[in-house]
């Protein structure tokens, strides 16, 4: 049975861990770092149910439960601005004997840097960040710009208005990798296509990853300005952009998960042309398995186009029928892998 944990903030100085469900057969906190049958993921802003990044991490944990027999624990983000309880959350997960403990998203970097040295026998996974390292830290990172380049190729091929849009949840270096790859893919395919770029919020306000209404409004604005393809790298907020595109009968490009297959987006799937996928699921599963096998991963673990760590989904039959588009995407993929195309990581 999985445990879902939440940090409830009391006043401004203390926090308590509340369990909404209790796992069977758990070990005491004195065993922290020694157990290999418990694993935890701490979600990024938006939590599970975002149809994107967090749900991809959950899929990896779910697979590990089924295939490896581990007991999984999920920790949801707190509601305070910037999710202030990350250190407390990771500490409690480690004390409970979970190994590994995985922070979903770059925002966990400072907290993992603080907590990991206190639990040297526990492996900590940090997704999307390499700024904080340690002997017991595995940095799970992706070449998002490569998958986004392929999305740019597809967008440039299908647009009829010669205007496409990119929506970023928060203007951070990570999300600008998505922008850079997408814009380059568009321009390399058709230099006459205009790319409208918009970010929903600026740090330290990370709400742009969690508010579908913002994503919807941004997409509506870009569509009103002539865009007929919208690519959003915005977590939960991206679902709003997909809704707006579908209602306007324009193409949407999803992100992180294959959003065509996400149940929560089923009403709009006809207009989800494709999705830029990141194999977050396998990265989570592989880290859990490495700990289970007694050979825990550490350092940078990179997932790129060459190993299908990023890619472009082909679930929508309408996309696969566009043979000229898929041929252009396949050629671009081969050229990136061969090194003929160098994809930028910044706009």
UniProtKB/TrEMBL annotation:
It is found in: Cell membrane. It holds the Pfam family Bmp. It is a lipid-anchor. Coiled coil: none annotated. Residues 44-342 form the ABC transporter substrate-binding protein PnrA-like domain. GO terms for cellular component: plasma membrane. Keywords: Cell membrane, Lipoprotein, Membrane, Signal. Belongs to the BMP lipoprotein family. This is BMP family ABC transporter substrate-binding protein. It comes from Streptomyces ficellus.
């Amino acid at each position: 049975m999985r445990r879902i944990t939440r940090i409830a903030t009391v006043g401004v100085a203390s926090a308590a861990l509340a369990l909404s469900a209790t796992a069977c057969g758990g070990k005491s906190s004195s065993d922290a770092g020694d157990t290999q049958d418990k694993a935890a993921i701490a979600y990024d802003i938006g939590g599970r149910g975002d149809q994107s990044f967090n749900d991809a991490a959950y899929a990896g944990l779910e697979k590990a439960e089924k295939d490896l027999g581990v007991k999984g624990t999920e920790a949801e983000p707190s509601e305070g601005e910037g999710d202030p309880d990350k250190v407390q959350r990771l500490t409690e997960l480690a004390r409970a004997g979970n190994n590994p403990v995985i922070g979903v998203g770059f925002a966990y970097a400072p907290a993992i840097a603080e907590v990991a040295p206190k639990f040297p026998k526990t492996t900590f996974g940090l997704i999307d960040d390499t700024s904080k390292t340690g002997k017991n830290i595995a940095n799970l990172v992706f070449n998002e710009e490569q998958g986004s380049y392929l999305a740019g190729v597809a967008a440039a091929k299908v647009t009829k208005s010669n205007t496409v849009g990119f929506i970023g949840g928060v203007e951070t270096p990570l999300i600008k990798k998505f922008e850079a790859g997408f814009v380059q893919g568009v321009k390399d395919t058709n230099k006459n296509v205009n790319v409208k770029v918009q970010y929903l919020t600026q740090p330290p306000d990370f709400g742009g990853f969690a508010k579908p209404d913002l994503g919807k409004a941004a997409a509506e604005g870009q569509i009103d300005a002539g865009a007929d393809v919208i690519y959003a790298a915005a977590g939960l907020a991206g679902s709003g952009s997909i809704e707006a595109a579908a209602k306007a009968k324009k193409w949407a490009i999803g992100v992180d998960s294959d959003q065509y297959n996400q149940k929560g987006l089923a009403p709009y799937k006809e207009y989800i042309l494709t999705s830029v996928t990141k194999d977050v699921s396998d990265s989570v599963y592989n880290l859990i398995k490495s700990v289970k096998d007694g050979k825990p991963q550490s350092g940078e673990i990179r997932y790129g186009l060459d190993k299908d760590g990023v890619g472009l989904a082909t679930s929508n039959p309408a996309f696969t029928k566009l043979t000229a588009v898929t041929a252009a995407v396949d050629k671009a993929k081969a050229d990136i892998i061969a090194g003929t195309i160098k994809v930028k990581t910044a706009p």
